[in-house]
């Protein structure tokens, strides 16, 4: 009979990561094709469900999806409901909300946006075409939900004291919440394997990087606008105290789990600075 490897070896290896991350917060941004493709969305939800089962505390931020212009048009509402439904099917007790709920995210109009205080039409409440920058965060609602073991699913909208609602960058919202919640990890799910040195070459994956490395890559000028946005959010998260940021594929069914529970990982891990070498 051929030698059979220990069928529990992988479980034993994963157990140490489970112990390490139990009760820690992971913020995950789900966007783009991962929202619009039912198969990809379900795979992401199943991975989030496993994190939750292991007593990791996920907080999910979602974008508007690949075909949408504003977060709360009819199609976006369906995408959001589909995400919540898939999480529920995977066994996750989740609650959908936006940054407007309970004053979670407060914003101000981005400089240069059209309209003025005298233009009532462009400033009236429920005009979701406005873009805002996050000014403050109140995590009490999220903490209350997490105390009940619910998983918050947050849409990137924010309000101001006048009742105006703003679109906010999903990258920025994810990073801002990760900092405010003292998250252990922030995940960006991508249509690529991770951060690529050459945008069109999957073989140019950068498995680990620091903020210095990101600055050098940005200086090379090969990053897409969407990647630059994420780099700025990564920098904000790490400087704000998040332990690590991970860019992983949302196109592969187990990329998140491989990144969390294996030594090799599956995408790009970004740290504030290179880990100190041991003395031995």
From TrEMBL:
Record's keyword terms, sorted: Amino-acid biosynthesis, Arginine biosynthesis, ATP-binding, Kinase, Nucleotide-binding, Transferase
Pathway: Amino-acid biosynthesis; L-arginine biosynthesis; N(2)-acetyl-L-ornithine from L-glutamate: step 2/4
GO biological process, any: L-arginine biosynthetic process
InterPro entries: AceGlu_kinase-like_sf, AcgluKinase_fam, Asp/Glu/Uridylate_kinase
EC code(s) of this entry: 2.7.2.8
Residue stretches making up the Aspartate/glutamate/uridylate kinase domain: 25-249
UniProt entry tagged with the keyword Ion transport: no
GO CC field: cytoplasm
Name of the top EC class for this enzyme: transferase
Phylogenetic lineage: Bacteria, Pseudomonadati, Myxococcota, Myxococcia, Myxococcales
Pfam families reported for this sequence: AA_kinase
Protein name: Acetylglutamate kinase
A GO term for molecular function: ATP binding
Catalytic activity: N-acetyl-L-glutamate + ATP = N-acetyl-L-glutamyl 5-phosphate + ADP
